[in-house]
Amino acid sequence: MTSTTEPSQRGGINVARLLMSFGPLMFLAVLIVVFTVLKPSFIDPINLFNILRQISITGLIALGMTFVILTAGIDLSVGSLLAFCGMVAAVVAKGGTANTLSLSTSGTQGYGWFAALLAAIVVGAMAGGVQGFAITRLKVPPFVVTLGGLTVFRGLTLTISNGGPISGFDASMRWFGTGLIGPVPVPAIIFAIAAILCHIVLRYTRYGRAVYAVGGNAEAARLSGLRVDRILISVYVIVGFFAGLAAFVLSARLNSSEAVAGIGYELTVISAVVIGGTSLFGGIGSVGGTVVGAALIGVLQNGLQFNNVSSYTQSIVIGLILILAVAFDRWLKSRVRR
Amino acid sequence: MPAEALEPSQNPALLAVEGVTKHFAGVTALSDVSLEVRPGEILGLLGENGAGKSTLLKILSGVMPPTSGRIVFDGAEFAPHNPQDAKRHGIVTIYQELSLIPTLTVAENIFIGRAPLGPLGLVSWRKMEEDSRAIIARVGLDLDPATPVSALSVAEQQLVEIARALSLKSRLIIMDEPTSALTETEVQKLMSIMDRLRKDGVAIMFVTHRLEEASAICDRMTVLRDGRLAGHLDREGGPIKLPKIIEKMVGRAASELYARPTQRDVAGDVRLSVRGLRTVRDPQAPHAIVLEGVDLDLRAGEILGVAGLVGSGRTELARAIFGADRIAAGTITLDGKPIAPASPADAIALGIGLVPEDRKHQAIFAALGILNNFSIAALGRYSNAAGFMAERREREALASYRKTLSIRMASPEQAIEGLSGGNQQKVILARWLARDPKVLIVDEPTRGVDVGAKAEVHQILVQLAARGIAVMMISSELPEVLAVSDRIVTMRRGRITGEMPGVEATEEKLMELMALDRKQEATQ
Fold first, then answer.
1. Which stretches make up the ABC transporter domain (chain B) (predicted)?
2. What is the per-residue pLDDT across A142-169, written as a single tens digit (0 to 9) for each?
């Protein structure tokens, strides 16, 4: 007898539901107020744009990670993949691996920023595709595949760069990292455009519906005629694409591609997505949440720094916030279910 | 345990259920049910789906308390707080879903939580294995206790569970559909073990759908119907005869809940034709039922009822046609053209829909809104060439199904898990209607649906058929099969065992066909 029908729940508005949608946003607002009270210069546009610039790299990857986590997957390889794509972009931009330490851009015969960007995102997307293939066809869990990827891509990066950085790009490429449009940093604009596109894709397209469905119930999705494997592969392609794009922006900003770039980024990225309310079990979450999650981490880091809190302590705070955010989310959900 | 010299019927009852009633949210699942189990006897507990067997089992095993009534076990009032408590008292329930931990060994499973300790307070593996060997020998198992449980067959796992129950000094073992996943020889073996336990003075409550098995082994039977006691049957000299059991289970000529359809004029052409359909054992699911050559025709505009018990292969038939399981041999034709759907997506593209058996795990996206649940199989119809959803059209379509199927919901954004079972099922039906299928297979369409909505779901199926859709309805509830089917086939063990027009069918006839063994078939 499975007919223990729960009392039918009204879809009306209640406090718990509101909190669930806007909880992270309200927390962000509170943080901004607190930091401003502590140090009014926190709210200066210069500092705010600075925060935007800081969060745009991990933010871009977090957009892709949102797709992955919506399907109940995970990608631990993004930090290494970022380094790898950055190195590929550098090699293309510089026309080879020689002259790696020269900051001078004269005498380099590279292929220009567009080729570098293209190389980074194509390599990133392909790397994601390979991992997606291993997950769906070889039936290796995403955690394992991308844990392997984390090591493999770092190794590939060190191999092509011989361990060192490749530095010195031309001005047109550096503009993507350091340029401004009006007062707004270019990376922040790239992040904003990407976020809007991702939001549109997830919210308004057939594909977005399919992503939520696969994450919500893969078996039901299959029995509803969705090509579940293809959708799963596609989300890893997307996160790979964003790792490539982020790599290009980071290299442009630093005027250098470091072999050790992106170490630990996967944790920041996943934290942003999860703090933003996307469920690690799939099917629930949004791009808006991820943007807020990324902003929350950025504001927290910047604000703590502003108040001379050591980076060691920052790690502790961010870790605790992550746990509290999920605990709060769980608690809210248990209230809503009643 | 010493063998009792007394005849079982002379023993005082070990367990007495007295006037037990259970209400759930306004529904009465059990009403004033009484029964007795004595030491050294096997009591059969029988009844159709929804008769209240599971509810009674849950009460006896401590999963939930009765609303009213009394249970006496071994002379004392018995009100277990939880399953562990029930076990401590000596009542062990063995469910269809076995509770062994597959990664642990047989010995570890038997001694879970109470491993024998050596002098240093460490686990004594040797003693554990020696004791395990003796314990499993009691149920006729001869295997290395260090074998991981995952390497055992379902039958062997079941025996390990029984052995564990015995080692816990259990005096009443409740077995819930223990034979549904077993082969014929495994069933025979289980029966002989049950017989041995009975001689040892253990009381067994055997909950089953399989009438001939119950007839073969039970000393007495208690039959439930619609949550009430339909009667007790006693073995008087010989086994209890099937017609007597069926009479008690069915109880009435026709259910008042299900109005029989008048013979509809179904003159449609053959839409779907299945010939010699076979599946192979999937190594991932070694205990699933295998189709052993199924022939079937489904006409446009008819409702074909497929009646069969759990494990008859009815769900496997649906899944094979739908491309969800691999086909080993046989052909499927749709409108005269051979088809070979390799995936549900292929089948859906060809115009086949499936409302699966297990709504929660196979059909609904619990956390998503009703709108998303509704349109998921027809995303192409509600989106433009660029892939953007045409949300207005989508909402209009849902609104129209909401009206025609009378789906009671708050808003299209409401999470589907907040709906009642019946309304969830209507959304799933709407999901397929949105695709205008040629063939719609519905598997247990009213499982977990309350009585009022059941009739509505039946009405919807009849309307779909009237629109020319070929409907195949799989159900283990015979009144339902009788209520809506134009034609009925019965299945057992992966084969079709009979066919008859809906108007000629009765519960008795169907039940005989569903319970029929091929061996018996050959001799009759």
1. 15-251, 274-518
2. 999 999 999 999 999 999 988 888 988 8
pLDDT at B309: 77
Residue of A nearest to B359 (CA): A220
Which strand (E) or helix (H) includes residue B305?
strand B303-308
Smallest Cα distance from A129 to chain B, Å: 21
What is the rounded CA–CA span in Å between residue B122 and residue B108?
14
Amino acid A100: pLDDT: 56
CA distance B211 to chain A (A): 20
Highest mean pLDDT among A68-82, A272-286, B396-410: A68-82
Q: Is A2 on the interface with B (CB under 8 A)?
A: yes
Query: How confident is the model over A12-34, as pLDDT tens digits?
Result: 456 666 666 677 788 888 889 99
Which residue in this structure is represented by tokens 């140090």? A39
A21 — contact with chain B (CB < 8 Å)?
no
Phi, psi of B512 (to 5 degrees): -65, -40
Q: Which chain B residues are closer than 8 Å to A11 by Cβ?
A: 409-411, 413-415, 418
Q: How many CB pairs under 8 A join A and B?
A: 121
The kind and range of the H/E element at B20 are strand B15-24
pLDDT tens digits, A173-222? 999 999 999 889 999 999 999 999 999 999 999 999 999 999 999 999 99
Band (B244; pLDDT cuts 50, 70, 90): confident
Q: Is A14 on the interface with B (CB under 8 A)?
A: no
So where are chain B's domains? 42-65+81-250, 254-351+439-448+470-524, 357-436
Q: How far is A292 from chain B (nearest CA, A)?
A: 22
Instruction: Look at residues B98, B99, B67, B64 and name the one whose alpha carbon lies nearest to residue B82.
Output: B64
Q: Is the pTM of this model over 0.90?
A: no
Range from A173-182, B243-252, B372-381 carrying the lowest mean pLDDT: B243-252
Q: What is the pLDDT of residues B188-237, one digit of tens each?
A: 888 988 998 899 889 999 998 777 788 889 999 999 888 889 889 888 87
Q: How many CA atoms lie within 13 A of B66 on its CB side?
A: 25
> Which CATH architecture group holds B42-65+81-250?
3-Layer(aba) Sandwich (3.40)
Locate the DSSP E strands across chain A: 166-167, 180-181, 184-185, 256-257
Q: Which of B346, B365, B381 to mutate to test the interface with A (most CBs of A within 10 A)?
A: B365
Whether the per-residue pLDDT at B182 is higher than 90: the answer is no
> Looking at residues B263-276, what average pLDDT do you find?
80
Chain B, residues 356-415, CB within 8 A of chain A, namely: 356, 361-368, 372, 375-377, 379-380, 383, 387-389, 391, 408-411, 413-415
Closest-CA distance, B303 to chain A, in angstroms, reads: 22
Asked if B413 lies within 8 A of A221 by C-beta distance, the reply is no
Asked if domains B42-65+81-250 and B254-351+439-448+470-524 share a fold, the reply is: yes
What are the angstrom distances between the C-alpha of B446 and each of A7, B159, B405, B478?
18, 34, 15, 12
Instruction: Flag whether residue A9 sits within 8 Å of chain B, measured between CB atoms.
Output: yes
Strand duo B27-37 + B15-24: pairing: antiparallel
Selected residues 48-107 of chain A with any CB under 8 Å from a CB in chain B = none
CB contact under 8 Å between B368 and A221, yes or no, is: no
Report the C-alpha gap between B146 and B157 in whole angstroms: 14
Q: Is B343 an 8 Å CB contact of chain A?
A: yes
What is the overall mean pLDDT for chain A? Answer: 88
CATH of domain B254-351+439-448+470-524: 3.40.50.300
Transcribe A247-281 into DSSP letters: HHHHHHHHTEE-TTTTTTHHHHHHHHHHHTT--TT
Q: What is the ipTM of this complex?
A: 0.85
- A7 CA: distance to closest CA in chain B (Å): 7
